[in-house]
Fold 4-hydroxy-tetrahydrodipicolinate reductase.
Amino acid sequence: MSIRVLIAGATGWTGGPLVEAVVAADDLELAGGVARSGGATFRSVDEALAAGGADVFVDYTSAAVVRGNVDAALAAGLHVVVGSSGLTEDDFAELDAAARAAGRGVIAAGNFSVLAATLLHAATLAAQHVEHWEVLDYGSFSKPDVPSGTSRELAERLAGVRAPQPAAHDHDVIGPPEARGADVAGTRVHSLRLPSYALSTEVVLATPDERLHIRHEAGASAAPYIAGTLLAIRRVPEVTGVIRGLDRLLFG
């Protein structure tokens, strides 16, 4: 039996190719697309949910609306896959409670690329043996969210391993303290926003005598994110509550 998929952000950079991939899949059925323009089936998420006929709601919209969309989809009885940035750790805790109460699953990832998920997994393993690290977050000069969802998810995952040791003068630096980056779940994250970048995430782990750089470089195409999103769509009906990170589907 096919899984019926409703996609919000259906004409966007990732949503458009995802619509094509769902239509092409033998085990999936497109229940509709939501976008404010571009010939999508529905103009609003509320309209799409009221129409019914979907099993899984996929959100590739924006940080400004993603939380309301996910809340509405869970209230309508759908499982949810979240590819949009902007949800905080507190948001996910509240969504986990709501999803469990509804008996539904939510799979969310700051990045549905298989290689980005591998970075997350590798960094988490390395952090078990290292006390110092920081994250560099590269994005287009037009990208509004800082840090990116990928870098935020990485920092929060590393916090589950341990808190990194601060630099010697993090509390009494000479100069603007902002130059040391933002504190995200205990990890220093530095966001660069420059032309020619799409999205790149790098974590540098260090000991007194060596360093490990783990870096994911995204290209200009949405193709790397499609396979991971399809995997989440197929797996989310088996889930109750929130799972964060594609790596947890790939590596357990």
Notes: The chain has two domains: 3-108+221-250, 114-218. The domain at 114-218 is CATH 3.30.360.10 (Dihydrodipicolinate Reductase; domain 2). The chain has a mean pLDDT of 95.
